[in-house]
Design brief:
Layout (H helix, E strand, L loop, with lengths): L15 H13 L12 E6 L32 H5 L27 E6 L5 E4 H5 L5 E8 L5 E10 H8 L7 E6 L19 E5 H4 L5 E6 L2 E2 L9 E3 L8
Parallel strand pairs: 1-2
Antiparallel strand pairs: 1-6, 2-3, 4-5, 5-8, 6-7, 8-9, 8-10
Amino acid sequence: MARLPKEPKAGEVTPEHLWLRRRDLIKSAAAFAGTAVAVGGALTLLTKDAGSGDRDVEFEGLAPRADAGPALTEARTPYEDVTGYNNYYELGTDKADPAENAHFLKPRPWTVDIAGEVARPGSVDLDRLLGWFHPEERVYRMRCVEAWSMVIPWLGFPLADLVKRLEPTSKARYVEFTTLMDPAQLPGHRRPVLDWPYVEGLRLDEALHPLALLATGLYGKPLLGQNGAPLRLVVPWKYGFK
C-alpha cells in the first residue's frame, strides 16, 4: 500500500498571493539563465544563450520587498565559521586547503570591465563603482549541494541597480560574470580542474530580481578573499556552488 505524503506544516505552504505574483514577475521581465561568481572580474551583457539549462527557473516564495530584503529570524552562523573555510577552487581544490590561501589575493586596486549590449560599456574602478550605491544588509541562507548551509548577514547593493545604470539595450537577454584569471593570486588556477577563468550567467529577469545582491561585505565588515572579495554575487535561490 502506497504511503500518503506527509501533510506540510502551515509555515511551509507558500502564500497564495506569492504564488500568483511569481507568474506576473516572469511575464513582466525579459529572458535570462544561470547564477553567481566566485572571485571578482568582468560583467558582460550578452545576447547569446549561456547554455545554463536553468531556462525555466522561477522564484517560488521569493517576494520582492521595498526594504533591504527578507530578514531571517534564525541565529546567524558565527563569523569565524563563515570566514574560516575555503570553498573556492580558485584558492585551492582540496577541502584541506586553508582559507588563509586568500592572502595571495590583492583586492585593491580592482577594476570591473563592462561590455556587451549596454549603452555604457567601459572599465570602472571598483571604489568608484561602489560610490554609486548605498550599501544595505541582507540576511540570506546560503545552501550548498553538499548538504550544509549558513545564515549570513551580507552587505551590498542590488545587482539590478547596477544593471539599470549600465542601460542594457533591447537586445540584452543575459548577464555573464567572468572572474579574475591570475595564477599568481589564485593558486587553484594552476590546476586544470575547470576551464579558467570561471564564467557564470543569469537571465536578465534574474539579474533584475530585487533579491539578487552584489555583496561587498558580511557581518558589517569588508568581504574577505575566502568569501569572494572584493565583489561577490549572492543569489539566494541558487546553490552555493553556482
